[in-house]
Amino acid sequence: MTIKSNSTAERMIDVGTAELCVETFGDPDRPAVLLIAGAASSMLSWADGFCERLANAGHHVIRYDQRDTGRSTCDPPGKPSYAMPELASETVALLDALRLPKAHLFGMSMGAGITQLVALDHPERVASIILTGGTPGGPGPFYDDLPRPAPVIMATFAEEQAEPDWTDREAVIRWLIEAERPYAGSAGFDDAAWLDLASRTYDRAVSIASLNNHFVMGDGPEWRDRLGSVRVPTLVLHGADDPMFPGHGAFLAREIPGAELINLAGVGHETPPRFAWDRVVAEIGRRTGA
């Protein structure tokens, strides 16, 4: 029998230090999966269809806008009032507000870093962690023993990227699309999906220019040397074609006790693309008991 999932309306939740915009899918009595987006990405980076697929597989799915994205609290552009540890603390505060003693945390890129921090500092709130597009110790400094980003990514770092006129909707949408293009895997870049995502991202943003605050905030204390103390079940889903953190999933899986690594063919540095949804949902369900 197919379980029909219903999305709740977006709602604002006060977590003490910020107001976060939250949306849920599926039955609240099912295992909770909290989706934590990457840098400069709103909750919409977790595609509606993916959230619905995960809910239909027997999960209570939660996605939310982190600070400076979507409809959540925004600081002035270039002046974030927080660092990575604060984002992790707000994740735990969101679980409190939702009255969830525990959840499975699924983090992408910066979200994978936040997920690591929550697992280290609040293991009692974590049923399991799923890391995609992640690197040991978060997306801060590049460690000498880890593979460097692909040349196309290093080139974007080396060149100062001109920001668009944030009041020009079409220009910002084009900028958002082109900023993501180098991160796609060998399966290709879905222009239609990204046009839809970029358009919706612009239209619902409180302060679209604030999204870059994630790139100038502080990382806080490094935590890679603490990963050996993670004691929650861990699944590492890493894009086989990830140009940002090539092969870093293998390092994560080695450094977190008992972690399982699955490399996703054709996937780059991106939230699960449509062709990978069935595999990703099945692997999550195998661990959550949904």
UniProtKB/TrEMBL annotation:
Ranges where the AB hydrolase-1 domain occurs: 31-270
GO molecular function, one term: triacylglycerol lipase activity
Gene Ontology BP annotations: glycerolipid catabolic process
Pfam families: Abhydrolase_1
Top-level taxon in the UniProt lineage: Bacteria
PANTHER family xrefs: AB HYDROLASE-1 DOMAIN-CONTAINING PROTEIN (PTHR43433:SF5), HYDROLASE, ALPHA/BETA FOLD FAMILY PROTEIN (PTHR43433)
Protein name: Pimeloyl-ACP methyl ester carboxylesterase
